[in-house]
Design goal:
56% strand; mainly beta
């Protein structure tokens, strides 16, 4: 059974940092593109950062120079280092694997809450 599990969410003050991790089990994701999404209350889910199987990355403009996505192929994990957090970063963050294009992915985690207080 393929599973993605996020960890590392929590409550942090504005300007602080958090590191999210996504652990994959059930199969290797070495050849899969992966990404981090977030969804705030009343808003649509958005792709925050993505990383290809080859390690190329891209970010939504609002998190550029603050967030860094990375992956550990040996451990089958992916991380999102979030610095200089802002209240508008508050959302449930989801990891995803296996891009189907147009923001659709094959596998999803259950999500982890990130709350940034002002």
């Amino acid at each position: 059974q393929v599973q993605l599990a996020e960890s590392g969410g929590g409550l942090v003050q504005a300007g602080g940092s958090l590191r999210l991790s996504c652990t994959a089990s059930g199969r290797t994701f070495i050849t899969y593109d992966m990404g981090w999404f977030r969804q705030a209350p009343g808003k649509q889910r958005e792709l925050v950062a993505a990383i290809t199987s080859g390690g190329s990355t891209n970010y939504v403009d609002s998190v550029k120079r603050r967030f860094t996505i990375s992956r550990d192929y040996a451990k089958n994990t992916m991380s999102l280092q979030m610095n200089s957090l802002k209240p508008e970063d508050t959302a449930v963050y989801y990891c995803a694997a296996g891009s189907l294009g147009d923001g659709q992915y094959m596998y999803w985690g259950q999500g982890t809450q990130v709350t940034v207080s002002s």
